[in-house]
Amino acid sequence: MAFSNNAKTVLERRYLTRDEEGNVIETIEGMFKRVADHVALADSIYNKEADIEELSNNFYNVMMEQEFMPNSPTLMNAGKELGQLSACFVLPIEDSMEGIFDAIKNAALIHKSGGGTGFSFSRLRPKGATVKSTGGVASGPVSFMKVFNSATEAVKQGGTRRGANMGILRVDHPDIMEFIECKKDTTEITNFNISVGLTEKFMEAVEKGEDYELIDPHNGKSTGTLNARTVYKHIVEMAWSTGEPGIIFLDRINRKSTVPGLGEMESTNPCGEQPLLPYESCNLGSINLAKMIKKGTNGYEVDYDRLGEVVDIGVHFLDNVIDINRYPLQEIDEMTRKTRKIGLGVMGFADMLFHLGIPYNSQQGVDFAHKIMKFIDERSKKKSQELAEIRGVFPAYEDSIFYNEGIKMRNSTTTTIAPTGTISIIAGASSGVEPLFAISFVRNVMDNDRLLEVHPYFEQIAKERGFYSEELMEKIAEEGTISHIEGIPEDVKKVFVTAHDVSPFWHIKMQAAFQDNVDNAVSKTVNFRREATREDVEEVYMLAYKLGCKGITIYRDGSRENQVLSTLKKH
Ligand code: CDP
After folding, report:
1. Residues with Cβ within 8 Å of residue 193, at least 6 apart in sequence
2. Residue 73: is the preceding peptide bond cis (ω within 30°)?
3. Which position among 26, 416, 451, 477 has the lowest Cβ density within 10 Å, counted as fewest Cβ atoms?
4. Are the beta carbons of 144 and 135 closer than 8 angstroms?
5. Contact between residue 356 and residue 222 where contact means Cβ atoms under 8 Å apart
6. Where are the domains of the chain?
7. Which residue, among 496, 505, 510, 110, has the nearest Cα to 346 in the 3D structure?
8. Is the pLDDT of residue 363 over 50?
9. Are 197 and 187 in contact (CB under 8 A)?
């Protein structure tokens, strides 16, 4: 079996079934069999004679071979009583005590089942506004976020992982300045990622240096103006110093909605890759590109035949998940089945580039990203169309862009690039579409276990080319990059780049290349060196806007404590 020790540790701690005393009673094979059998069952809804066993075998094989992994809740809960299989949810928050506490309760139910929740706080009246029933004054979005945060703290996700949240506030909300700095103290609101929802109007005002209006969502009236550049600079300042808030381009997200007839999206899931309508959920799955290669006459090449097959299997799998999922709320059940959004994406992209000898931070790398994601996206749509012929179109089809185009789809979206934080460990792949964090590094695997790892393909090349030594690997772990280390051939240095060798410019170019070929969004962190200036951050934000990204998250090295991945070197 190809699972690494890290993968086994993660699986044992959180994924494999336990008995009432907490003893693990499932093997890794058993887990994948449980998932495959359960997900395959959905075919019988459409065809009483379907060969469930063969389908289950196909599902089982792609997971056991680490070619495809569904998001964590599917691995944890499929075929079990809980049965909640989605990673991503967006819940609405109405501007009333009842509405606010309903959302907290609903979030708690979702966190318990292993999902993450995104919220827009934009509908809440600003701090100091009057409350009619009591004659008192409102506390405002930020103070309620703290209540959501405490509730999350108290409910451990799926028994072992803490719930993740996304909090969004529109830039034209009167409390926007307070929101922008609400995580200035990095020990506050720790169960939330936060992003400012930027509008086109705001971005135009930034470019022209103009003021823009703040609107009280409760009555739709203007409460005053702010200078757009001042607000923008404040966002940049906070992101530079703490990594938050991120930004999302709300109007762009809605312009690209495939179901515009169903209303507006106001938030994404916790890691930003999945914009959703209120009460929608989405299940994700990722193809491990590191496994989609074969030996050709001139070294490694992409195995497009196998990649196509795995895309087909992935789409089939994720569409089945929608049918067998046990949704935590009636509203979520209805909305999710209406649009049938799925998010097929990739991991191991950096690994694939290493094998192909293509530098991540190059036009060649960006062009390649474009090409491979276009292939996956088109193929996934083709498969969704095939499924539509047998199973019918998604129920909100007439509210979608596909209706006008006359394209019959089973799913209103098919592609998303997830962070693959845990499933990439299970698959032994680099995360999502990120460059490798380091060629050799210390990984903090849950509860502060620290493990030194060397990238296996780098190790292989180093041995083949005769520059391998343990001492060298230690040195690389300390530096985090091989770019300044002597004794490594230049051509190797060019290809085996890591996050810090990749300038923010190439990070964004890569994100944009994937976004061009993805229905939903792309989870990506743009890494900056510690020395980067506020102007550097500002420039990259503008570039993300100009290149069509749906949002951006940055991280400047050393600006936040408790990094998940860290090189040995102290900064
Ligand atoms: O690798 P895995 O399937 O565990 O998850 P991921 O790709 O890192 O994250 C995908 C999504 O799962 C996130 O955007 C969140 O919506 C959700 N998630 C969560 O709720 N809590 C976590 N601790 C991790 C992920």
Report:
1. 164, 165, 166, 167, 244, 246, 270, 271, 272, 553
2. no
3. 451
4. no
5. no
6. 88-268, 424-566
7. 510
8. yes
9. no
Spell out the residues 6+ positions from residue 410 whose beta carbon is closer than 8 angstroms to its own: 319, 340, 384, 385, 387, 388, 391, 392, 393, 394
CA trace torsion 251, 524, 117, 64 (10° rounding): 130
What does DSSP assign to residue 260?
A: G
Among residues 191, 269, 283, 520, the one annotated as catalytic is 269
Rounded-to-integer distance, Cα 248 and Cα 552, Å: 7
Does the C-beta of 346 come closer than 6 Å to ligand 1? no
Per the annotation, the verdict on 182 as an active-site residue is no
For the question of residue 386 being annotated catalytic, the response is: no
DSSP state of 464: H
Candidate from 105-114, 272-281, 471-480 with smallest mean pLDDT: 471-480
Tell me how far apart the 2 most distant CA atoms of the chain are, in Å: 78
Pairwise CA distance, residues 245 & 552, whole Å: 10
CA of 209 to the centre of ligand 1 (A): 38
C-alpha to C-alpha distance for 313 and 218, rounded to whole angstroms? 47
Q: Between the CA of residue 307 and those of 290, 314, 375, what are the distances in Å? A: 11, 10, 9
First-to-final CA distance of the chain: 38
Q: What is the pLDDT of residues 281-340, one digit of tens each?
A: 999 999 999 999 999 998 999 999 999 999 999 999 999 999 999 999 999 999 999 999
Question: 285 and 344 in contact (C-beta within 8 Å)?
Answer: yes
Residue 88 Cβ contacting ligand 1 at under 6 Å: yes
Kindly report the protein residue whose alpha carbon is nearest to atom 8 of ligand 1: 421
> Which ligand 1 atom minimizes the distance to the CA of 272?
14
* 271: annotated active-site residue: yes
How many angstroms separate the CA atoms of 436 and 455, rounded? 9
Q: Which residue's CA lies nearest to atom 18 of ligand 1?
A: 116
Contacts 24+ apart (CB under 8 A), 225-229: 226/176, 226/177, 228/202
CA distances (Å), origin 151, targets 142, 187, 329, 431: 15, 16, 18, 30
CA distance 235 to 248: 12
Q: Mutate which of 63, 71, 153 to test ligand 1's pocket (most atoms within 8 Å of Cβ)?
A: 71
Contact 278, 339 (CB under 8 A): no
Q: What share of the chain is helix, strand, coil (3-state, %, to 5)?
A: 45, 20, 40
pLDDT in tens, 170-209: 999 999 999 999 999 989 999 999 999 999 999 999 999 9
Question: Cα–Cα distance between 569 and 481 in angstroms, integer?
Answer: 11
Instruction: Please give the class, per CATH, of domain 88-268.
Output: alpha beta
For 340, half-sphere exposure in the C-beta direction (CA atoms, 13 angstrom radius) is: 27
* 418 CB near ligand 1 (under 6 Å): yes
Asked if 353 contacts 368 with a C-beta cutoff of 8 angstroms, the reply is: yes
Please state, in angstroms and rounded to a whole number, the distance separating the CA atoms of residues 87 and 81.
Answer: 17
